[in-house]
Amino acid sequence: MARLADYFVVVGYDLEKRGGGEGQGRILQRFPEKDWEDNPFPQGIELFCQPNGWQLALERQPPSFFVAVLTDINSERHYCACFTFWEAVDNPLLAKEEASEADEDEGPVEPLPAQLYAPKSVVVVSRLDYTEVFRNCLGLIYTVHVDGLNVPLETVIGNLLTCTIPIAGGSQTDESSVCSLDLAPLSLSCDWLLGCFQPEEEESEDSSRTITLGAGDRQVIQTPINDSLPVSGCSVSQLFRQLGIVNVLYLFCAALTEHKILFLSSSYQRLTDACRALLAIMFPLKYSFTYVPILPGKLLEVLSTPTPFIIGVNSFFRSETQELLDVIIADLDGGTVTIPECVHISLLPEPLLQHTQTVLSMVLDPELEVADHAFPPSSIQPSTQKIQDKEIRAVFLWLFAQLFQGYRWCLHIIRIHPEPVIRFHKAAFLGQRSQTEDDFLTKVLDGMAFARFVSERGPPYRPTDLFDDLVANQVKRIRQEEGMPRKALSHIKELAEQLFKNENPYPAVAMHKVQRPSELAPQARPSGAPTPACFPPLDEVTVQLFIDHANAKIKNAPPIVRPELKSMVPSGPPLVDFVDRGNVLANSARRLEVVRNCINYIFDNKMLEAKKLMPAVLRALKGRAARVCLTQELNQHVLQNRAVLDDQQFDYIVRMMNCTLQDCSHMDEHGIAAALLPLVTAFCRKLGGGITQFAYSCVQEHMVWTNMQFWEAMFYSDVQKHIRSLYLETEEGDTANTEQETSSSEVVPEVSALELASEQSRLWPTLSKELQQERVQKEESTVFSQAIHYANRMSYLLLPLDTSKNRLLRNTGLGDGESVSNSYLTNSIAGSMAESYDTESGFEDAETSDVANSVVRFINRFVDKVCNESGVTNDHLKALHTMIPDIVQMHIETLDAVHRESKRLPPIQKPKLLRPTLLPGEELVMDGMRVHLMSDGREEATGLMGGPPLLPAEGAIFLTTYRLVFKGTPIDPLVGEQIVTRSFPVASLTKEKRISVSLPMDQFLQEGLQLRSCTFQLMKVAFDEEVASDLAEVFRKHLHKLRYPQHVQGTFAFTVGQSTKLVVEHKTKDKNQSLKTLSKNLVKTAKRTIGRQYVTRKKYTPPTWESRSSMPSEMDEDEISVCEEPDQSSLTLSSTIRSSDRQTMSNVVERACCRDYQRLGLGTLSNSLTRSKNEPFRISTVNRMYTVCRSYPGLLIVPQSVPDSTIQRISRCYRQNRFPVVCWRNSRTKAVLLRSAGLHAKGVVGFFKSPNAPSAGPSQADSTSLEQEKYLQAIVSSMPSYSEASGRNTLSHFTSAHMSSSDSSDKLRQPKIGALMKQVMGGKEDMPGTFSRGGKWGSIRGSGRLSAYNPDVGNRLAGKDSPQPNGGPADTFFRQHRAYLYIIGDKAQLKGGKQDSFQQWELVPIEVCDVRQVKNSFKKLMKACVPSSPASEPTMTFHRCLEESDWMGLLHRVLQVSVLVVELLDQGSSVMVSLEDGWDVTTQVVSLVQLLSDPYYRTFDGFRLLVEKEWLSFGHRFSHRGGQTLASQGSGFTPVFLQFLDCVHQIHLQFPMEFEFSQFYLKFLAYHYVSNRFRTFLLDSDYERIELGVLYEEKGERKNPQVCKSVWDYIDRLHKKTPVFYNYMFAPEDEEVLKPYSYVSNLKVWDLYTEETLAEGPSFDWELARSTRQERVSEESSSGSSDRPDTSSSAPTPKSHRRIVWPCYDNCSRTLPDAITKLLQEVQALECELGQVSEKWKETWDKIKTTQRTETKLESRHSFSSSLLMSSNLSHQRRSQGVYLQESGVGSSINLNQDFEVSAGSTPHATGRTSTSTLYSQFQSTESENRSYEGILYKKGALLKPWKPRWFVLDKTKHQLRYYESRKDKECKGVIELAEVEAVNTGVPSMGAPKHIDEKAFFDLKTTKRVYNFCAEDSQNAQLWMDSVQSCLSDA
Is the pTM of this model over 0.70? Predict the structure, then answer.
């Protein structure tokens, strides 16, 4: 029985303590005044009576009622039913005003009302939640007071406080409320007696209770049948109506996963109901955090508590809840739930969520299903609200039954007496349901609510309720309902009925008789009527008498014994494993058979058979069933806890165990590790010296062993087993049986541990004290012995075999030595360690103690936890703590011996290490370390995309001075004979990180390295166990030292082959002179010589323009080369210096820049006096000492008119002093291209102001700005178009005759230049220039005057206007003038500049890509092309990653700007590129512009010159951008040059016939510019190269054939040997300007980034690739000969010449060469066979090419002969025909979509792309071109055929005599090859010869095959023919 009400309180407004604005409440009276012993009075009730604060009101408010909930310190909830009414009080402010009539400057104040209303509350405090009963009781008290009923209030209150009711349904006879008759008024006594003493026989169960308070009232209280089920009234259905299904489900999941939930409403009662409803649907879980359904405004700071809560707050405080960042806010009035961004709610797992939503909508909205029916049923009404409420709760009960189904099978009972102690095995539960990944379930199981659920519902012997029945007995039914909502609904209705019956056991009994206030309630009284008096003070004595009387009666009454209905809790059926449903193959019986067979083979010692099956077994062990099978099979081979194996058996078993454990998660949800735990201590092998090694020492490296939860679960399950056997023993006394049972973990127990425990709990009260004590002790010692056992087990698996290798600590959470505070395992045991760890048994070896300490700490922590939970006594615990260090130490000693002995074992046969071939001069830094090369994110080599699994491979990693090389063989036995090589230059390493790798192999590997290189290579290696970890560390250090040398001289390019030479130099030194001083001297002498000699020394004469075609070859071997010098090794220092002294100047002149300037006619280095004045530019030596600009070359092109002094001043305005210099001139338009850095000025156009000038504006008369302006003006004046503009404003003299007819076709090809400019500048509307139509893209319309060109320039107008359709160049009259100079600058820098109307230049602001952008983009590109692991998200495909890297976008930007500049130059305007520091983007743009504009740069020599000039001489910072030294390590790798090469590659793809070099050439440069093999791309400028003395040595050292220091020399040499760099499709057009498409859609990913050749490594080190190939060839031939059996009798077996080519393994271009390369190879092979001196390929090729060309010309125009297939002649198709022949020769498509039968004169209709005029050259050629002599001759036919006249053509070039039917005939009738002609003689007329012709007109031609008879018109003609043929023959 329980009291209905504990306290009655009257709370009123406190008039005395009225503070500023906020009132306070105070307790006026409370009954009883003394606290109950069992239930102290809750504090702070006055706050909860008026949650919004105590305030006076102007009008009387209607009475209100709500229930607040207070929770006390013991988590008991107190329900405070609060009834508030309003009473009149005098205005306290009036009194104040009268009291203090101080002058208040408030102006006129409204008169204050004389009377106000104050709230007063009567409150009932109870531990029972009966809202309606409390409403009625308090209403009655109010009615008695207001209506002045004839009943004393004390009686009513006394009765209320003494009323007791049963907590839950049960039979009790006469326990009515105790009332005193003498106090009851007589008039009411009959009713009162009826209520108090009514014997309630008619209600047998008595779960309803009738009460009366003695005021003529009567109420029935129905107590629930089972008090464990919550009572909800209608609150749940109301909550769903307010918020809707989805929102409530969100709140439900949020509450279960411990989020903060806040309800808002303007109604207090609704807040309470909503909170009650949320708790009701959480059943059977109970909410354990802060629960305040109504929070007073004064306590709002509670909302910022860090713990979860469910709180209700009045909407009045909405604004104050807005800034809560982690609170989910449910607005009940508005029906919304707001979830903050930072909160992630885990929802129910699918399909449960879907089922639940469906069933809920069927309950709440049954019409939804039939809403679309044509004939809906007449009435589908949802149930009444009360029933609906129970239906919704039933849905959630059904949901929990599904979620927790089978939970009792995962309970471990670890103590039965004195109290059951139960633990839940979470991992097993999740594993069986295969929901280890499910966020929601994991969080719920980890939550406090579930912990309470386990402790309350875990015990096996207790009262049961509806949920227990549902989860145990209805499992089958719930399974069937899963997909059938209708079935589920009927089940839910049944459950709802039970819930309803529980809450309303007697729905019929509802006799409520409670008086309400009369109609004349206070607010309705007429104004005249007297208001009721205030609520009177009550007589404490009277009320206390009631209470005492009742207490006395209770004491005297006999105690009620209510039998507790305890029973054994049913467990229900065990969980059928959900696992492996998805994995079809996992359960295939065949796989299990394989595992069983393999194990049997091992134990039968059939090792060969086992070895064959091993790979299949290791694959099968990925499936769970196979792993379970393995543990069961191994178990059968254990006899008496031991199984001794030989070495090989042991090895195989360990491998299988490792493989099994490797796929287990650290939670071990499938219990695999648990099943293996007893086995790893059973299997062992004997080592020498009587030492045994157990399997555990080889399977330690798995995360599961370091997981505390795993050990706890294992411990508890073992304890449960032992306790079970303990009681089975006591029951049956049959020990033998038990031992058998416990030793084998697999025997299924007949009686489960929980059932046993339930039985024992039932018997417990019947046992004697002694017996009870004995059982407690037995259990305790069982737990204790298991703890010792587990301390041993844990030390086995946590201490590594080699205790010096602190491996476990490093790789797992066990901690790093002592600093383990952040590890998840060892932070909290520091305290317990301090007193328990026995320091006396200290260890000598620091390393060992390190491992030992952490293991001891880990075990101590484990022991503390499990022993405290399972009630082990303190003495036992202390004993354990002293034991543990000894156990660990003992085990360490054992392990040392095992480790020592295991080292002596003969090593397992591993494949022998293959040594890599080294380059000349390359040396090994570290010998091979055995590693496994793991597969990364690229799937080609792993066999996943078909083909053999080449990776993982086993071999060794070698570190040389140049490269990092892996060489080995695939692990897969099917491809074991292939060799896998992967390597990259050390200098290209960009990232190195440690990784842990696990492998299903002989040895279990752990440590690994992941090395990423910017040559798009990734090496993921795992060190073999034989590699000591310190060796791996040494390897990393060496690698780092090589990657980042102190100085650039430490790079491979410098150290190669120099080790000896440097020593020699040191010996010959007289003074101790270091290299540095040497280099300084070099620079000094260089400077001196430059100053002295540039006028006098004229050894280098530039060739004339005529001889320029042969220039490059002359350039290579220069007159001033150092070849005549003595051999390098015998050089003395002095000779070196002398030679450099002698040559410096000539070398400077000979540098790339000068060669190019002279080729372009930009100036010569002649004496200044003789320099022709009309040359606009000169070569200035102002920078010869590198004083003006360190990063510029020594000689620069500047305008003639600008003196050197000006230049020095101007240079200061530019960043890094890189002032504008000319780097190229258009030979046709004479427009120049300039380059410079951006200006120093920040954000304002600095072209017209000095850097320090305060005001901005072009009129600034500062000297520097003026000089700058002059400088630009000088450039503009240098242009012929400017100097000739003498006022003629017309362009009409340029008629269409100047236009090239072919250009009309190009309109399709490119956007107009205006549009292009717009794109480049980011689409601004206010553009500096607009462009008119016409020309290749149109011409530029500037802001200035109309331009006038001097026709004497002799060139076409830059616009190349094609004739308009109407024939006249009408457009040209109105075209305005372009700017003479366009300055391409950075948008940010050119901001705010005003254009001066008199300026002849214009600014083009563009956005450039920052270096940082390039760096980040490149990182992402590498990750996209070479991912380190397979993509975790399916959305992150290669193309998505590529797009995210934005690499293509950057290429697009650079190309776009370059094409714009090309167009401007082509139109005759000069362009100055002035971006960033002038050495990154500027260099890219300037180089690309020259490449596109000038065909010379598209040849080998030209491209070399371009790179040497723009990139090397003009100071691109190769060392800095490539991070080549320690100093630049921090700046990272920024591939600016690679980006340029990629742009060239894109252009090459679009114009395959314009480049002399192939794509391989570009790849070669891309590889070697980062490889540091050559010195070419080292250092940041010419100045640095001179300082180091490397600028001019390259030529001199050619003598040493081993080492090429310059990449260009190497390319030259290789090019002479092999056509690998040559582009066979090279057929350039004269002066062709290329304008490629630059849209991203037109760009292709460079295959350099994605291709790989595992057979030989990268193919860019030619010597290595060649030697690898030779190895392979010799291997194949030897294997071919050895494999053939002795074929004396049988016929030889034919050997196939076919080979399989794997794209990621073989070098496709080499294994499948294109036709021409193959033919050239065959020619070479034939020459060798025939013993001839083999001709150089280039000569062969050139010969073939010339003959092909002449043939093509001679052939008639109709025949489209096979010569087209010769790709050199692809000029037939020109670019527009879509020729696309890749260098590899794979996938060449030649689509000739044009009809070639075009008449000679007609203009072809071209289809796009650049000028197609040359396409038809062979058809438009004049007749005389390829015909030496022609005319009519009679020819005698073959035997018996007549003479016939024919048109004969003698072709000297093709060496043929061809004849046609007639002169106009195109078809050749026959050909006589002159090569076959032996003699030409005069002939005689034979039969049938033409009449009347001179005899001398006949002549014969004798060939090897026959004699031809001819007859000319006359003898003279005949003689001419004979002479012509003769001369042809003699010429040949």
Answer: no
- Give the DSSP H/E element, type plus range, for residue 927: strand 924-933
The number of C-alpha atoms within 13 Å of 309 and in the hemisphere containing its C-beta is 23
Beta bridge partners of 693: 685
Q: Please state whether the peptide bond connecting residue 418 to the residue before it is cis, i.e. omega within 30 degrees of 0.
A: yes
Integer CA distances (angstroms), 1665 to 918, 950, 967, in order: 11, 19, 14
Q: What pLDDT does residue 1148 have?
A: 56
- Mean pLDDT along residues 703-721: 87
Three-state SS sequence of 185-243:
CHHHHHHHHHHHHCCCCCCCCCCEEEECCCCCCEEEEECCCCCCCCCCCCHHHHHHHHH
* Strand pairing report for 219-222 and 208-211: antiparallel
CB 1190 within 8 Å of CB 1581: yes
Helix axis angle for 439-446 and 245-256, nearest 10°, is 50
Q: What secondary structure does DSSP assign to 1614-1681, as a single string? A: HHHH-GGGB-TT--PPTTPPP----SGGG----GGGT---TTTS-TTSHHHHHHHHHHHHHHHHHHHH
Return the axis-axis angle of helices 647-662 and 589-603, rounded to nearest 10°: 150
Report residue 671 as tokens: 């219990």
Residue 1555, pLDDT > 90, answer yes
- Distance between CA atoms of 797 and 809, rounded to whole angstroms? 12
Name the least confident of 55-64, 850-859, 1091-1100: 1091-1100
**Stated length of the chain:** 1932
Question: Residue 1886 to residues 134, 1847, 1895, 1908, 1925: CA-CA distances in angstroms?
Answer: 146, 21, 10, 12, 22
- The owner of tokens 């391409």 is 1384
CA distances from 1031 to 202, 928, 1007, 1025, 1793 (A): 91, 11, 12, 11, 64
Instruction: Among 412-426, 580-594, 1087-1101, 1520-1534, name the one with the lowest average pLDDT.
Output: 1087-1101
Region of poorest pLDDT, from 259-268, 741-750, 1464-1473:
741-750
pLDDT in tens, 61-114: 899 999 999 988 878 889 999 999 988 888 766 655 555 554 444 444 566 677
Residue 1628, preceding bond cis, omega within 30 degrees? no
**pLDDT tens readout for residues 1503-1527:** 999 999 999 999 999 988 888 888 8
What does the alpha-carbon distance between residue 1716 and residue 1735 come to, in Å, rounded to a whole number? 16
Whole-number Å distance between alpha carbons of 1711 and 95 = 110
Please, are residues 1779 and 1773 in contact by the beta-carbon 8 Å criterion? yes
Find out whether 1716 and 1709 touch, Cβ atoms under 8 Å: no
CA dihedral 941, 944, 946, 950 (to 10 degrees): 30
Tell me the pLDDT tens digit for each residue of 986-1029: 999 999 988 887 665 544 556 889 999 999 999 999 888 777 77
* Dist CA 1689 CA 1691 (whole Å): 7
H and E: helices and strands count for the chain: 59, 44
Distances (CA, A) of 330 to 48, 289, 440, 1463: 21, 18, 21, 64
Asked if residue 757 lies in contact with residue 450, where contact means CB atoms within 8 angstroms, the answer is no
CA gap 1341, 990 in Å, rounded? 48
Residue 1138 makes CB contacts below 8 A (sequence gap 6+) with none
Sequence-ordered alpha helix ranges (H) in 342-447:
352-364, 367-370, 385-403, 426-432, 439-446
Count of C-beta atoms within a 10 Å radius of residue 1792: 13
Residue 832 has pLDDT above 50, yes or no: no
Cα-flanking dihedrals φ and ψ of residue 982, to 5°?
-140, 130
Q: Count other Cβ atoms within 10 Å, centred on residue 129.
A: 17
Place of tokens 């165990």: 657
The three-class DSSP label of residue 633 is helix
Q: Cβ distance 1240 to 1216 under 8 Å?
A: no
Give me the helix-helix angle, 1204-1211 and 1263-1277, nearest 10°.
120
